[in-house]
Amino acid sequence: MARAAIPRRLTWRVARLVETRDETPSARTLVLDVSGWPGHLAGQHVDVRLTADDGYTAQRSYSIAAPADGDRVELTVQRVPDGEVSPYLTEVFAKGDPVEVRGPVGGWFVWRPTDTAPVLLVAGGSGIVPLMAMVRARRAAGSRVPFRLIYSVRTPSDVYYADELRRRVRDDGGLDVAYAYTRAVPDGWPEPPRRLGVAAVNTAGWPPNLEPACFVCGPTGFVEAVADILVALGHDPRRVRAERFGPTGSPSGSPTGSPMGGTIGSPSGSPTGGPAGSPTGG
Question: Which residue pairs, CB below 8 angstroms and at least 24 apart, start in 135-141?
């Protein structure tokens, strides 16, 4: 039975891998069993820590990919070449192996099933991970809130959760998904590869007069471009929530892989949110 996340002091917990699913040639979903997990909200993330035999530790943050489900926590990790953590998690980490996790972290970039406003999700690459948690949370709650997802990827083979998204569109009333391909398109696609632009967001998104809740997640440049488009189209900046992948040593001071969260219209930002599956530095 799902539990609601309750604010509390965060502590490290031992998690064990119980299942894996390959999402793309370089991304894998990890299903963890975390004893005593307090629950979480769609959009939150966890910190993951690895400790070597000599005591050396490496820590990264990853968005949670599914809604709360007892002690289960799902992460989707994008393998980063020459990374310290992601190659281990995607290539070496085996069923039954332990890993330390801490969370859930973040309370701003979240969607709750009690929310009633239409939702616009805009994902760039692995930025789909926390947004997929929202899609799944909607399904699990039986919510009829209308969702629209705009998903920008380089090529068709880079789409996370491809089969599930097709099923969700077919079976979940009120969910629409539109794709933008930047480097290669599927056979028969009606237009050439291109970056997500004003026309696509205007066509596939909600009109601003409906006052949708907008969630944007992806690399910094992508998020800033989409946020500018949404505001230019007339969306209230206070209703545009964003997560940006923060590079190592970013001015925000966020940990490697953790985005800078907040509303577009808030210079001071909000509590740092959680990354998706592909942190810089891996």
Answer: 135/165, 135/168, 135/172, 135/175, 136/42, 136/65, 136/66, 136/67, 137/41, 137/42, 137/67, 137/111, 137/113, 138/111, 138/113, 138/172, 138/175, 139/168, 139/172, 140/2, 140/67, 140/113, 141/67, 141/113
> What values do phi and psi take at 197, rounded to 5?
-130, -175
Regarding whether 91 and 129 lie in a shared domain, the answer is: no
Q: In what order do the strands lie in the sheet with 213-219?
A: 175-181, 147-153, 119-124, 213-219, 240-245, 260-263
Instruction: Provide the 8-state DSSP code for 84.
Output: S
Whether omega for the bond prior to residue 104 falls within 30 degrees of 0, making it cis, is yes
3-state secondary structure of 267: coil
| Residue 143 DSSP SS3 | coil
Domain coverage including residue 130: 119-263
Q: What is the pLDDT of residues 71-87, one digit of tens each?
A: 999 999 999 988 999 99
| CATH code, domain carrying 40 | 2.40.30.10
Position 3 in a domain: no
Q: What is the pLDDT of residues 142-154, one digit of tens each?
A: 999 999 999 999 9
Which structure tokens are listed for 233? 């189209």
Structure tokens at 278: 């592909």
**Last residue of a domain, which of 48, 72, 104?**
104
Which pair of tokens denotes residue 272? 């740092």
Q: Are 74 and 64 in contact (CB under 8 A)?
A: yes
Which of 74, 104, 134 terminates a domain? The answer is: 104
**pLDDT tens-digit profile of 224-273?**
999 999 999 999 999 999 998 755 333 222 333 334 445 554 333 333 34
Q: Residue 2: inside a domain, yes or no?
A: no
Q: Kindly tell me the sign of the dihedral angle through the C-alpha atoms of 35, 40, 42, 46.
A: negative
Report helix, strand or coil for 134. helix
